[in-house]
Design goal:
single chain, 12 strands
Length: 196
């Protein structure tokens, strides 16, 4: 541990968590903390690589097997006084191939910036997902289970500014523009993972 400009920080390398190296590997770990007189911010930083196989159990059956490979990532857990904690996960997805229909198909060598931000508060979770310039999604969740989703919006080729959220609870609003969309390839992916 060192003290630098009033901020205590710790640095560790080469950690593999209990999840196993086949899922996520932490190559670099850093803890930063500011004293109370400077806000008392606490930031936990991690860098490493992750495997798509580690998240496949979270996906519906039609979505399994279409993403493969490993990719580097950075993650940060940020806590500030009087603010909800925020978790930010970022990856360029280089090393991950996608056999999804266009526009989400990609070879492993191509970069496609992914950013996931999760803010947890007393009212629930706010999750914001950005995938390059292709899409941006925002989900509002409360509680656990299938009915935890309050509302969500997914924008294709999203414009600048906040997303339009649906007014009705439990609704997902999908909007935006695409040059083309192959419905015959996309519909089977949703038919097996959604109801209604």
């Amino acid at each position: 541990a060192q003290l630098l400009a009033g901020t205590a920080w710790f640095h560790v390398t080469g950690i593999t968590p209990a999840l196993g190296a086949e899922r996520i590997n932490i190559e670099d770990f850093e803890l930063q903390h500011q004293p109370p007189e400077r806000g008392g911010d606490l930031t936990v930083l991690a860098r490493g690589s992750f495997s798509v196989a580690g998240v496949e159990p979270l996906l519906g059956r039609p979505w399994q097997g279409v993403l493969k490979g490993y990719a580097p990532y950075t993650a940060a857990l940020i806590t500030r006084a009087n603010r909800a904690p925020r978790l930010v996960f970022e990856s360029n997805l280089v090393g991950v191939s996608s056999e999804l229909p266009p526009p989400l198909a990609k070879p492993a060598s191509a970069a496609l910036p992914l950013r996931v931000s999760v803010i947890a508060g007393e009212a629930g979770q706010r999750i914001v997902i950005t995938l390059g310039r292709l899409l941006r999604a925002e989900l509002l969740r409360q509680g656990e289970g299938e009915k935890s989703l309050q509302r969500a919006a997914v924008a294709l080729s999203p414009p600048a500014g906040p997303l339009r959220m649906p007014e009705e609870r439990g609704t997902v609003l999908l909007y935006g523009t695409l040059e083309s969309l192959d419905l015959e390839r996309w519909l089977p992916l949703f038919a097996g993972s959604t109801s209604g």
